[in-house]
Amino acid sequence: MLKLGILPEPTLLLRPVPAFLQAGLLQRILEKMLDEEAMQRFAELSGKRFLFRTFDDVVRLGMTFTAGSIRVQANPAWNADVTISGNLPALIALCFSLQDADSLFFSRCLLLTGDTASGLLFKNVLANLDFDLHEVLRNRFGARMADALWRMAGQAIAGIQRVDGDLERVRARITKSLHLSTTDQAQSLRSDMAALTGQYDAMQHRLAKLEKRLTRRA
Amino acid sequence: MSHALHKPELVCPAGNLPSLKAAVDAGGDVVYLGFRNASNARNFEGLNFSAKEAQQGIEYAHRYGVKVYVAVNTSPRPGQEKAWTSSVDLAAQLGADAVILSDMAVLDYAKTRHPSLRRHLSVQASACNYESLEFYRREFGIVRAVLPRVLTLDDIRALTGRTEVEIEIFASGGLCVMAEGRCWLSSFVTGDSPNMQGVCSPAHAVRFEEQGETLDVRLDGVLINRFAPNEAAAYPTLCKGCFEAAGKRGHVMEEPYSLTVLEMLPGIMQAGISALKIEGRQRTKHYVKEVVSVMRAAVDACAAAPQSYRTQAAWLERMNAVSEGGARTAGAYVDEWR
What we know:
Oligomer: heterodimer
Radius of gyration of chain B: 20 Å
CATH class of the largest domain in chain A: Alpha Beta
CATH superfamily of the largest domain in chain B: Aldolase class I
Strand order of the largest sheet of chain A: 3-2-1-4-5
CATH architecture of the largest domain in chain B: Alpha-Beta Barrel
Helix content of chain B: 25-40%
């Protein structure tokens, strides 16, 4: 998880996608995912305004609820009642119930601020959906295509998480170096920074390679 | 008194239908659940079962030979008894295999109105000695008791050697300050307690606030924890808050550890215990699937060859990955804590 703002979030996948398209896509997926009963349960959140954002603010999607419908909008101007921040894989995992949501919050890949009760209700309504994205893909595209898509998505998320972890280690070293307090250690800091710059360049190179590979596959 | 090795029932949590199915599919023997009101001790927003969902869940479980227990294990306030008695009626009507109760009035109601429905004594009743179990057996006909997490394995062995009541103990999940069913700590801050409202940290009182790189957690405005950057967090409860005492800052009441009995299964299975309970109705289907799968594999391995049973590192890794607090403990079952 990156929160210092020194290094980029791995949201490279969505950077080229205009915000209104991100919102439209999520809106369509939710409409497909949620049946009438599920929509009714979200109605308990009527009047509540949710903001989903990546830690680097590349993605900022608002969500509002009324009886029987959910509205997603890009970069909303209003103040949210609940904000769920996270790295991109964790936000995707939350929305599509791909991983244990609590573990994502405990590990601080996700952060809930604002009205906790509404946030918890949202999490539990999602958890109550008998939704299996893999199964949906199999029904939509057939087993072979769906399995291939599933493997690709898994590799992409694992790749992003690996890069994210590498960047986090670099970030930790930078933070540690910045905490050195005496001038006597300036030399040590300089050599550390030189090493870190090398590692940072290597990370950027790996990110670019991953982006190219994913674009090619898409 | 020593016991032959007994393979206990695996009693698994479900806060919603997908979790119930995950528990059944992962090899649970029993699933326990609660209805969507304050009658059970996991009364969180959006959690638990409507009557229709409970019916679907019970049908699904029974189709695969898995039993369903319904927890009605909090205490009604005066004038609000109907929600509790209705929950017992609904459990009976839907064909639940047992009800898990703690309040004496609710126990009496279940015994009188539904004499053939098995009654289990909840951990919330905090019964931890032979005389107490005998009282509940004699007066309310309980057939099983879930023991509070205050006893050592030796204490439990002594109980199973005397009582006719089946004994169920906790096998994994979050721990509390060991005053189960009698804890009022959170009510001093939030006004709510697990005994009456079914939740010790009601979400309406919880706030997470970013303060630069640190994360502050407040309960009804009271700062109860401050997490360092990237430090693992947990759902906040007052007992697991971080406080200053005698000039030191730390978890003065309870460490945020998770219980696991994996490493002591042979001893547990020789103690005459009837069932192992997995905590976590508030968790998702992914947690339930992971923990039930690990416990199923471990209990089966231990039953098949207790002498050569060894806890697999992979089991512990899988449990740690989903556990709250990130560290594990054998809790009070080992006597070092006394």
